[in-house]
Amino acid sequence: MLEIEGLTKTFMRGGLLRKSAPVTALRDVSLTVAKGESFGLVGESGSGKSTLARCILRLDQPTSGRILFEGQDMARLSPAAMRRLRARIQVVWQDPYASLNPRMSVHDIVTEPLVVHRAAIGLDSRGRTERAARILAQVGLGPQHLHRYPHEFSGGQRQRIGIARALVTEPALLLLDEPTSALDVSVQAQVLNLLVDLQARLGLTYFFISHDLSVIRYICDRVALLHRGELVEQGPTDTIFDAPRHEVTRTLLAAMPEVVVPD
Ligand SMILES: Nc1ncnc2c1ncn2[C@@H]1O[C@H](COP(=O)(O)OP(=O)(O)OP(=O)(O)O)[C@@H](O)[C@H]1O
Ligand SMILES: [Mg+2]
C-alpha cells in the first residue's frame, strides 16, 4: 500500500544573513507498509518520525527518494490525481488541544475534509452532515455533540473528534502521530482500544508513530526503529521485542514502563 524508497530529507536552516549547517532529518529510509496492517514507527524525540509523516502527507517535500501509494509515485501525480489520493490518506496528530480549531463547531471540524475533498467525494451539505453524524457514532459520540465546540470536551473526547475528522473521507491509510501521548493513561487505553476496534471494523491500514514501546507492542504487527534519521531495525513486533538486534532498541526496551494497556 505504501512504499518508501531511499527517502532523505534535509532542512536548510539559518536566515538570509547567517548560514548554519543543514539538518538531515531522514537519511535513506526505506520501508513498506502492507494493506490492512498496523505499522509502527518508533524513535526518540528528534529522530525524524514526524518529518516522515509530513513527507507522506506532502506537507514536506522529500530531498530525494520516492514515496509510492498504491503503486503510484506521489511526486509524479497531476494536481487533480494528488487531490484524489490525499483524500485516502488522513492523519491524527498528537495534541487534540492544538489540532482542533477552537472557533469551529464539531460539525464544521468533522465535515471540513469533506468540503476540501468535495470534488473527489461529492457529498452535498446534507450528505456531509449525515456522514459526520455516522462517523461520530463510530468513535462513540452522539449527534448531540455536533453543535458543540472543542472546549466543551475532555482530552479523550477531543481526540475522538480528531479521529472522526480523519475518518470522514473514508481513507485507506491513517497516519497516527503519537495520537494518545497527550492523554491521561486511563484515557489513553480507551482511545487505543477504539483505534484497534476501528481498524478491524473499517479495514484500515495504520502507520502508527510513537516513542512508547508498550503502545507499539499493543497496536502494531510490524515495527521500524528510527535513530537520528536512519532506520536501524525493522521487523515483526514480536521479533523486535524478543530479540532486538540494535543497541538503541535495547536501550528503549530497557526504559519501557510497565505495560498499562487493558484487554
Ligand atoms: N521545518 C523544519 N526546519 C528545520 N528543521 C526541522 C524542521 N522540522 C524538523 N526539523 C528537524 O528535523 C529533526 C527531526 O524532527 P522530527 O520532528 O521529525 O522528530 P520526531 O521524531 O517527530 O520528534 P518528536 O518525538 O519530538 O516528535 C529534528 O532535528 C528537527 O529539529
Ligand atoms: Mg514528532
UniProtKB/TrEMBL annotation:
One of its GO terms (biological process) is transmembrane transport. Its main location: membrane. InterPro entries: AAA+_ATPase, ABC_transp_ATP-bind, ABC_transporter-like_ATP-bd, ABC_transporter-like_CS, P-loop_NTPase. The keyword Phosphoprotein does not apply. Keywords: ATP-binding, Nucleotide-binding, Transport. GO terms for molecular function: ATP binding; ATP hydrolysis activity. Gene3D superfamilies: P-loop containing nucleotide triphosphate hydrolases. It is a peripheral membrane protein. It is found in: Cell inner membrane. The keyword Disulfide bond does not apply. Residues 2-253 form the ABC transporter domain. One of its GO terms (cellular component) is plasma membrane. Belongs to the ABC transporter superfamily. This is ABC transporter ATP-binding protein. It comes from Falsiroseomonas algicola. The lineage of its organism: Bacteria, Pseudomonadati, Pseudomonadota, Alphaproteobacteria, Acetobacterales.
